[in-house]
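User: Working on a comparison across species. This one is Peptide deformylase from Thermaurantimonas aggregans. Can you predict its structure so I can line it up against the others?
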Amino acid sequence: MILPIVAYGDPVLKRKSIPIDHSYKNLNELIANMWETMYQANGVGLAAPQIGLNIRLFIVDATPFAEDPEYANEEGIKDFKKVFINAQILEESGEKWAFNEGCLSIPEIREDVSRHERIRMTWFDENFQEHTGEFDGIRARIIQHEYDHIEGILFTDRLSPLRKRLIKGKLDNILKGKVSCNYKIRFYNK
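Assistant: Here's the predicted structure for Peptide deformylase from Thermaurantimonas aggregans:
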């Protein structure tokens, strides 16, 4: 089932998410719905807060970057598809690099965001098997973006005060529901 994506302005996007365990109700169905929702919206990642759930769950699929000549040769991109439950970033390392990011919860806005090139983290997969791993390049970037969502951080929070002022009108339009999307979106009503 395709779920509506929560738009900028909804308080769930600014809350730190809570851990879940293997008994979380209908977890497999939720994950399947998240994949369907993300693919329908042409995303490469989706976090539970973006569908209104304040839990530490996100999914990523970097496969579309394998078709981009700039990233096609990056190791591990092709078929990089994972579920992350209760993820914790243990270490960020390497040079920070800028990349033009967007977000399904913040339609029609893209901005350069600097992030570390490498991360080391722990997480549980959809079967609640624990993993520790390192990711770099575009994989690390996608994970960091989605991880921010479960920490209550949006990519716009990482912009300079000047950039924030320059996009304020566009953010206000999202708050007013004055954007168009090719996917289901739910605007926040105070």
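For your comparison, note: The beta strands are 5-6, 45-47, 57-61, 81-103, 106-124, 130-136, 185-186.

User: Helpful, thanks.
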